[in-house]
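## tool: complex_structure
## caller: assistant
## args:
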Amino acid sequence: MEIQLHSGQFEGSLDLLLFLVRKHKMNPLDLKISEITDEFIEYVKEIEKIDIEVTSDFILMAATLMEIKSRILLSPSKETIEKQEEIAKQLYEYAIVKESAKKIEALCDWHSKELGVSVFPFETQEKNGMIPESFTKVLRVIRKEMDLRKKIYRISKDVYSFSKKMETIKTFMLKRKRASINEILSMSNDRLELVVSFVTILELLRLKFLLIDSNDEVILSEGGNNC
Amino acid sequence: MKAETIAEIEALLMASHGLSISEIMSISQKKRNEILEILDKIEETYSKEDHGIELKNVAGKYSFFTKASYIEAVSKVKKRSISEMTQSQMEVLAIIAFNQPITLKEMERFRGSSSSNQARELISLGLIRRRRDKEKKGNPYVYVTTENFLKILGVSDLSSLKEEKDFENSKVSQNVRNSVKEES
Amino acid sequence: MKAETIAEIEALLMASHGLSISEIMSISQKKRNEILEILDKIEETYSKEDHGIELKNVAGKYSFFTKASYIEAVSKVKKRSISEMTQSQMEVLAIIAFNQPITLKEMERFRGSSSSNQARELISLGLIRRRRDKEKKGNPYVYVTTENFLKILGVSDLSSLKEEKDFENSKVSQNVRNSVKEES
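## result:
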């Protein structure tokens, strides 16, 4: 038997079963498991070669079919017949699902060709409807979100890098010679920048670019110009 | 049925993006029956072949659409949106549509294979949504279709979909049986 | 004059919100004379008293408008919609207000969900409009708020939108508050 398959051809074990039932011109409700089990297994072997991920469902069904087939061949008990009927019923329902899916697809396809239209009132009169009160709240939320994102954006723009902050403070102090720590810190736009500024001041103190005086003000050290 | 009343309702429908019967009632101050008659009349007028648009009830709202047969020309002036769905997503959608509210387990029984990926995709497409079923034991998650689903199908409600294909309806089942035979 | 040609041109005019003769010529592949005849025919059809819309040539573009005599009913449809704006429409409106001119993509990136339906509704409510941004690469469509938006909000310009206090104290907000109370 020559089987040509492509990946994802069958949605699941029921899909394969339905395919074989149709191939054998069988009615899903009159499913004869013994007639298609061997072929089912052949297909599952092929599916296993191309689609490792989805095979567990197929293998489970193959096992069930084999069990029913062997029992029917040996001594068809009422229980076994019922099991076959159950699978037949499931298969039948699945056939309906496939039909319904086709129907839905057809409706979607048709309606995608129908485009909604509307016309304008001739006099573009003032549309004085009231904007709901909750719009104020929405504006507030959006503004907050925007502020938040701006901050994130600035971080990614590297404004908070220590080297840049160091340049800024150096330039500032070369001009001013003396300033309070608070004054430098207050040039920060948010907490993160504040932390960066503080750490930079500490670093400049360590480098002796800045010195601290008795009024807790920082002053440009004498050698600061060469730093 | 006065000509002016028909004209007024036509103007209302054209100016809006769809109105329900009760919305038309409250704006036009007409009775439901009269409105239904007028909608029938408008539908009939536009169904004629010298009109390129038609009146439809989609998801309970009446509005005008260009007729499908003119899509080629119309798509040159207005963008057509097509929702791309896979075969398995369609199957899951069909199961939910006809059996809602339905749990993931029940869906999987229908298809004989896992359906959670498809359900997730369909949620992000806005075609189904998930909620807790308070009546079932343990309040499991159940899946239902959304209004958006009716909108992409262009049908008025779920019952009109069922008319086309009912799981319990023996006549339809017969059709399915025949179609299964024909295809093979 | 074939019925299908009339229907096709009607569909085109409805879907486009206005087309010039030469645009209709290039899409429909019909001669100018035939199109003029058809436009006459459509105009005549809709001039009858059982139609609430009419075909007009405004600034060289043919398009449909609701008839002036139904403006009272029609404005109710529009008015209702502004006060019934959905949460997502308000979100999109706020984003446009603060970030205009802004493209649809930028809006969607901000919101994390599709915004085209909301934008379309807001356009039809007269709160925003769309134009080509000639300064950006590829001249994409950008969205801006309208004069009408500021008027309805009762603010003089966009910068005062950012100052929450102004907006909340405005006379219109008070009106809005009252109208909300009445409705509930």
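## assistant note: The longest strand of chain C covers residues 53-58. The CA atoms of residues 132 and 141 of chain C lie 5 Å apart. Handing back to user.
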